[in-house]
Amino acid sequence: MPKEQQMSVSVWRGGATGAFQSFDVKMEDNQTVLDVVAWIQQYADPTLSYRYACRVGMCGSCAMMVNGVPRWTCRTHVNKVLKDGHMEIGPLRNLPVIKDLATDMDPFFDKWVAAEGLHHPTQTRDDPIEAIDPTNAARVEINAGIECINCSVCYAACDTVAGNPDYLGPAALQRAWSVYNDSKDANKQAILDAVSGVGGCHNCHSQGSCAVHCPNELNPMNAIAGLKRETARNFFKRRT
How far is 230 from 83, CA to CA, in rounded Å? Predict the structure, then answer.
């Protein structure tokens, strides 16, 4: 195979401890990073472990570190990340590695729950559905983060998470802000209590990596800033 039709790809092998393994991979037109990973598993090493589902940027399952940057590999074309014919692919940062490129997502979703990013209903299933005004200011605020699909790219990009394992992280806090602004939610105080505690919104250093790397171009910093304001108001309200 001519050298110009190959690329050198270093792929993480093992768990928390391991090493990068190099593969020579055939280059194709319109090739994505996920295509490269699939090629390695199919033609070079069938024991390679990784995660994916939709392949079209809808599920976020294929997120990995590419040259040290968290990305959806199904939406990242090789020609945008290849450097001098080489590319490095690793598991998402800030999450336990199960094997190779597959990470354990439990800590990510545990924090989603810890931030009270879940609905506290005001009605039962027997009650009529409440009409919501889509132009309402709170509803507009929710819409700004509604496209989060919990891919964990922002979590992997966050240096605060890297330095503070208790920090809830941008996705969980953004979800908490969405629920807080939902007129159908019955326990806003529980949300404020959850996000103002240890590892909560006030741990954010506002570095902005979450906004820079979000594949859906969301900005969790806006949600975190909103939570900071509301928790501060709540603190002084309780003291009066």
Answer: 45
Question: For the chain, how many residues are written?
Answer: 240
pLDDT digits (tens, 9 = 90+) for 106-126: 999 999 999 999 989 888 889
Is the distance from CB of 176 to CB of 117 less than 8 angstroms? yes
**Domains assigned to the chain:** 3-103 (3.10.20.30), 106-239 (1.10.1060.10)
Q: Is a pLDDT exceeding 50 seen at residue 1?
A: no
The encoded tokens of residue 14 equal 């093992």
pLDDT in tens, 74-99: 999 999 999 999 999 999 999 999 99
